[in-house]
Specification:
Shape: globular
Helix content: 40-55%
Number of helices: 11
Distance between the termini: 18 Å
Radius of gyration: 17 Å
Largest sheet: 4 strands, parallel
Order of helices and strands: EHEHHEHEHEHHEHHEHEH
Number of strands: 8
Strand order of the largest sheet: 2-1-3-4
Length: 235
Amino acid sequence: MSGPRMLGVLGGMGPLAGATFMQRLTLLTPAARDQEHIPAILWSDPRVPDRTAARLAGGEDPLPWLMRGIRGLEAAGCGAVAIPCNTAHGWFDAMQGATRLPILHIVEAAADDLLRLGVGAGRIGLLATKGTLAMRLYQERLEGRGYDCLVPEEAEMDRIVMPAIDRVKANRVAEAYAPLAESAARLMARGARAVVLGCTEIPLGIAAGPALPFPVADTIDALARAAVAWAKPAG
């Protein structure tokens, strides 16, 4: 069959982030009719154990659940996998080593999105879960591309950022806007040139209020753009 290749989406972490990724994938795809859009299968399994708890508190290992989803997407005939959950990328090497399918890396997608926004090497802010920050998923890859990552103080993470992420997961999205906008503004005040929204719940909270007056790299959109580039390569 002709047309774009089939994309597998490993979602459910959380469910709203996966559903929003599918919407953004559709809206960011250059298409004039149904048949020009990207065929995609969403594997949305919210039973995957908490990734931050697994990394920081000895919680249940999410890898067997992640691999169960990848195997389902393999069996469905997908040609690549996108995972709209940043913290799950702490298990990226294990997942990629156990599947023949390429897994699109959300941090690389975010770095490409910074360049799209005109934000080259330099100081940037990073909002993410405590698990993502502890694993240095963004810091190591972005520093390798010339960026210096500023992150919230630990007390701010406990008091503002993590509770706001929890509100999004609980479908109290509008309540997350003010604290997330405040944390992003604090990073800009410390000298950041842009802020990476490095948890896929964070863009959902930020979208619930007025647009922020500085550049932000939305990792849901960044991953969707990477998926479009994979499915419909130029030329």
